[in-house]
# Entry
Amino acid sequence: MISPEQRPMLRFLIVQTAASVVGLQAWQILFNNFAVEVAGLNGLQIGVIGSVREIPGFLALLAVFVMLVIREHRLSSLSIITLGLGVALTGLFPSYLGLIVTTLVMSFGFHYYETTNQSLTLQYFSTATAPLIFGRLRSLAAATSIVVGLMIFLMGLTFSYRVMFLTIGLLVVAAGIWGLFQDPTHKSAPPQHRKMIFRRRYSLFYFLTLMAGARRQIFVAFSVFLLVKVFHCTVTEITLLFVVNNAINYVLSPAIGRAIVRFGERKVLSVEYGGLIAIFLVYAFSGSKAVVIVMYILDHILFNFAIAIRTYFQKVADPPDIAPSMAVGFTINHIAAVVMPAIGGALWMIDYRIPFIGGACLSVISLLAVQRIPRFNQEIAG
# Structure
């Protein structure tokens, strides 16, 4: 499946992806408690920092201009170093302004790595192999998340927040420095355009990417909040749910990649959006805590199906368009991150069901849109 010339890139992506997950998961697990207990932030300040965290994702298209002077795999490693520095410095600046700055640093590193990670995978692996690589990387991320949670639990018994942030951040920096000394590229990969690329024939990719971003924000902003606010889930229950989700995704993510290869993007995405219609409606109208928890787990599984949007693009795109288009796509995906939490929060105050009904409506639109994807992989490749 993997040729000898592709193995260095696969090894590079595995190490850098693991480092990215370590940094982000550690930050997410520690941040809220640190912000409240040490920095003394209030809810409004934490909300502002949450919005600030999404700004680098919205600016991901600027990666195209960075790649004018830095090769893409080098930018990937520099992004990991930046992510690690942001995490390492977080514990040293326990103030509102300090956390805004360190969050920006961390987020720029994470989002620019995600942009280059997707781009390099699509460039260096074939249309038959890329879904399998995405699945393997998602599985790795799930396993790494579980390890990070256990590591922080054990470190928390002895070490302060400052030591934990610093230790984990420096580990991530070390992985990024390792990456700077690697050259996983090979000459047969197509050279990439170093300018903005917008093409009308990519409009379906742009639209599905925008809708996926909106769906992600409903999931991130409101699904766990629903479990806590309406169904009164405890911290222990949410933590257990986190572990269960990652364990399931560790097993299923490679299977999702194989399903894309076997059945094609149209069928896989139809399953995702058909399932999401039901899940969002259950979120809105179910009074059963157990049923909603099951829906949350299914929601988390279906989230991985979105890799089919990128593999669909790989099949319709001119090879030199992949890197700039992934950057543009990441920005489009984050348009929803700027507006959806605020709009959804306002609607929640009227009735908590409204954001989920809205999510079901968005899923219906997405389900209709994916029917424009050719039915068979051969049609796309041809």
Notes: The CA atoms of residues 18 and 144 lie 6 Å apart. The two ends are 22 Å apart (CA to CA). Confidence is low (pLDDT under 50) at residues 377-382.
